[in-house]
Structures are given as C-alpha cells and as structure tokens.
C-alpha cells in the first residue's frame, strides 16, 4: 500500500475510496484516507472533503443528505 501526503489539494472522493478517518493532532483535525490500494493524509477535515466532493459532482451536502433520508424513510401507501 502506497502512502502519500496531500498538502494543499482537496481529495476527491471516488469509487476507490474505502474510508476517511478523522485524526487529531493537538487541536488540529486532519483526514486519513484509505483507498483500495493507497493511503493518503490530508490537512482538511473529513467533513470538508465530503462537502467539496459533493460540490465537485454538481450536488450539495444538504441535498445529498436529504436525498438519503427520503430514500430510506419513504413509506408505501396503505392498500
């Protein structure tokens, strides 16, 4: 597994992204990103990375969040 440091770039969440862990160093929170065959460290928080990726793909975090709530909580009409 290769390890890289992403310094000033935002990481784009993609189909190879497995998990994004928050890591704390003192009062600073950064992200440790695991892909299928790679590991990255970013100075941005996981929430910042996810929001930016949503915007990159033409959505918003709030829109995606509401979409997930509606998909999993819809009720079938009574017969």
Structure description:
Strands 1-4-3-2 form a 4-stranded mixed beta sheet, with no helix packed on it. It has 2 helices and 4 strands. The radius of gyration is 16 Å and the shape is extended. The protein is an alpha+beta fold and 79 residues long. 9% of the residues are buried.
Write the layout of secondary structure elements.
Layout: E1 2-6, E2 17-25, E3 28-35, E4 38-42, H1 46-56, H2 61-73
Parallel strand pairs: 1-4
Antiparallel strand pairs: 2-3, 3-4
Q: What is the CA–CA distance across the termini? A: 54 Å
List SSEs in N-to-C order: EEEEHH
How many strand segments? Answer: 4
Report helical residue fraction.
25-40%
Portion in strands: 25-35%
Parts with pLDDT < 50 across at least 5 consecutive residues: none
Classify the secondary structure makeup into a structural class: alpha+beta
User: Over the alpha carbons, how many angstroms does the gyration radius reach?
Assistant: 16 Å
Largest sheet: 4 strands, mixed
The average pLDDT value, as a whole number, equals: 77
Gross geometry? extended
Q: How many H/I helical runs?
A: 2
Strand order of the largest sheet: 1-4-3-2
Comma- or semicolon-separated keywords:
single chain, 79 residues, alpha+beta, four-stranded mixed β-sheet, 2 helices, 4 strands
In short:
By secondary structure, the chain is an alpha+beta fold.
């Amino acid at each position: 597994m290769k390890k890289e440091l992403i310094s000033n770039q935002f990481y784009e969440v993609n189909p190879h992204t497995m998990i994004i862990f928050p890591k704390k160093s003192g009062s600073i929170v950064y992200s440790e990103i695991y892909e299928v065959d790679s590991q990255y460290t970013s100075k941005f928080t996981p929430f910042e990375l996810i929001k930016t990726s949503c915007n990159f793909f033409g959505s918003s975090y709030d829109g995606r969040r509401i979409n997930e709530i509606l998909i999993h909580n819809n009720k079938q009409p009574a017969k």
